[in-house]
Amino acid sequence: MNDVLETAAAEFRQLGKLLGAAAETAFDRTLDWLVDDYFRLDVLGLENVPAEGAAMLAANHSGAWGLDAFVLHKVFARSLGRPLRIPAAPFTFRVPVLGPYAQKNGAYPIEPTLGLEHLNAGGLVGVFPEGTSGLEKPFHERYRLRPFSPGFAVTAVRAGAPVIPVAVVGAEEACPKLGEVPALARLFDLPYFPLTPGFPLPSKWLVTIGEPIPAPVRPTSIAERSAAARGLCAEVQRAVQEMLDRETGRRETAFW
């Protein structure tokens, strides 16, 4: 009897793995369709990402569900020919299908050094310095950056890696935040649970990649290092905001 139960359990686990893999494949294909046909995404400035060597890409975080992180990874995976590692909030990895998919495609739980080891190895790291606060802002505050956390700049200074500002336009309209449901946030142990359309709206997306901002030479004193990181953080935020203002100002409608 025990042998039968063990065999059944093993077969059930195997079936779960197969269903999970199929779901991840379906999600990946859906992302391809969203990028190419639904959002009609354009990318400007890919030449600003170095073909080799360490660099950190810092982007605005927008849209109620954080779909922009998956879209950006898909775009860079196609275009750069280099792996991009993205630190993600712990709750990301608890979401069925999306969590395993993210982990298999370069995401890893946020830790204090924000990818320092990957930069020291000459890799690319993508960060969203607004964190979840960028996703939580109401729709009427779209494309107005929340304060950047300076942790990414501390890491860039330590690694001596340039920071490349990235502006994502379109995600705010695709998944507008219309409100919140605190009870559901508590139920699912999430930072917040937004009211937003059940499926993304067909907004036009544009990803603009700015020129690299060199990290300052790492000072010797703690106070000077802190000041250098704060200065780099502020410079990157200004660059991203300027790109967002420029690109949103150019468009006639969000759904062109």
Helix and strand topology:
Elements: H1 2-38, E1 42-44, E2 55-59, H2 67-79, E3 84-88, H3 98-104, E4 107-109, H4 116-120, E5 124-127, H5 133-136, H6 151-159, E6 163-169, H7 171-174, E7 179-180, H8 182-187, E8 194-195, E9 206-209, H9 222-250
Parallel strand pairs: 1-9, 2-5, 2-6, 3-4, 3-5
Antiparallel strand pairs: 6-9, 7-8
Verbal overview:
Helices cover 45% and strands 14% of the residues. The protein is built from nine helices and nine strands. Helix 3 links the parallel strand 3 and strand 4 (107-109). Helix 1 (2-38) packs across helix 2 (67-79) and helix 6 packs across helix 9.
Short note summarizing the structure:
The protein is built from 9 helices and 9 strands. By secondary structure, it is an alpha/beta fold.
